[in-house]
Amino acid sequence: MEDDCNTQTITRDHAVDVLLTTGNLVLEPEDVDYALRRLLERGDFYEVDDELRVMDSRE
Q: 10 Å Cβ neighbour count for 15?
């Protein structure tokens, strides 16, 4: 299987930092963990090592 260079990725730590510091939301660390877990469960993201990759909805 070929790696798609257009796949958007973010490390889990960076995603947590972004969610905790965004001005529009007030989230606790537990809320962030829950949100990321739900995104993974729904298939919006998949995880490889410590990277979260965005699923291509066209697939």
A: 17
In this structure, is the dihedral angle defined by the CA atoms of residues 28, 23, 11 and 47, taken in order, positive or negative? positive
- The answer to whether 35 touches 42, Cβ cutoff 8 Å, is no
Two tokens, residue 23: 């001005």
Query: Which of 59, 49, 56 lies closest to 10, judged by CA?
Result: 49
**Beta carbons within 8 Å of 4's beta carbon, 6+ residues apart:** 56
pLDDT tens digit sequence for 10-36:
999 999 999 899 888 888 999 999 999
